[in-house]
UniProtKB/TrEMBL annotation:
It is a multi-pass membrane protein. This is TerC family protein. The keyword Transmembrane applies. One of its GO terms (cellular component) is membrane.
Length: 341
């Protein structure tokens, strides 16, 4: 698959433009409701599908199928990421109107880190073809581990990253709007929102370690791996606000995701023994995810939306108007030396 430089530049420009549009649309902090989240989710999914059609027509059907298979895998695995975000926000009692800013920066960081991981993975595969078997074994182990721990919950308050952050970075206990840093009496302090952002970024990196090898099982073309990841990730914020209060209903989804990881791992192991067409891989992944979702919704029918509960990571509050007004500028401007002399 020959991908010209202008195609890479066009994709990067489109991603930057979409991020800018999303940031502009949510420039003011507000609670994102289900209707708004659904609208944005449709926009992002249609964007991903449209790009897949472009790939299909610009190159060939095989490239298009590889893109859609990778997109479906990444989108499915991203749901688990969304659930972890919901638990982190609940543990820190983050007001809903402040959550979008964290997720925007989290997704931005995820794009950068996944781009680096994809470049490293493509380089390893090109120079050490046996690394595919390592990826395959890792995916099978991850799927097995996911099934074993399917009923366990994430506990952000026990995170080593959080303990390190609190030990190294002075932090206030109050949210000051969407600020990540504030200055009080000359001391620069992190707000709880910065600690949340750090945990979200670390979570993204951990999930990338699972998802990047998975997509290499369906295609080794870096352009398709990156674009499938990018378009799947771009819709994560809207997906979060759409699904965060429905975590309790997807009781079998984690099992389905685990089976997907095992499937792509086995497919990768058999790469030199048995060729499995991309169409078959796409159909298997779609079927597994669809069955797990339908089974989950049937098992939990009648249950409505409810707020996620989590063990508190601390006692956090929203700063009063007086506290916000008393803040000092984070970036102090240097006074003119002439006036001081």
């Amino acid at each position: 698959m020959d991908v010209p430089l202008f195609a890479w530049l066009a994709v990067l420009a489109a991603i930057v433009a979409m991020l800018a549009i999303d940031l502009f649309a949510h420039r003011r902090a507000h609670v994102i409701g289900v209707r708004e989240a659904l609208g944005w989710s449709i926009v992002w999914v249609l964007s991903g599908i449209t790009f897949g059609v472009v790939v299909w027509n610009a190159w060939d059907a095989e490239a298009g199928q590889q893109y859609f298979a990778g997109y479906l895998i990444e989108k499915s695995l991203a749901v688990d990421n969304v659930f972890v975000w919901a638990i982190i926000f609940a543990a820190f009692a983050v007001p809903r109107e402040f959550q979008h800013r964290v997720l925007f920066l989290g997704v931005l960081g995820a794009l950068v880190f996944r781009g680096l991981f994809i470049a490293a993975g493509a380089l390893l595969i090109e120079n050490f073809s046996w690394i595919l078997y390592v990826f395959a074994a890792f995916l099978i182990y991850t799927g097995w581990r996911m099934i074993r721990t399917r009923n366990e919950h994430v506990h952000p308050e026990r995170s080593r990253v959080l303990r390190w952050f609190r030990r190294v970075v002075p932090m206030t206990d109050a949210y000051h709007g969407q600020r990540f840093l504030v200055r009080k009496q000359g001391v620069l302090l992190a707000t709880p929102l910065l600690a949340v952002l750090v945990l979200v970024e670390v979570t993204d990196i951990v999930f990338a370690v699972d998802s990047i090898p998975a997509i290499f099982a369906v295609t080794d073309e870096a352009f398709l791996v990156f674009t499938a990841n990018a378009f799947a990730i771009l819709g994560l914020r809207a997906m979060y606000f759409l699904l965060a209060d429905l975590i309790h209903r997807f009781v079998y989804l984690k099992v389905g995701l685990a089976i997907v990881l095992v499937w792509v791992g086995v497919k990768m192991l058999l790469l030199d023994v048995l060729y499995i067409p991309t169409t078959v891989s796409l159909a298997v992944v779609a079927t597994i995810i669809a069955v797990s979702i339908v089974a989950s919704l049937r098992a939990t029918r009648g249950q409505g939306r409810r707020t996620v509960e989590a063990d508190p990571a601390g006692a956090f509050r929203v700063a009063s108007d007086e506290e916000v007004a008393a803040l000092e500028p984070v970036l102090r401007r240097r006074r003119a030396a002439a006036s001081a002399r």
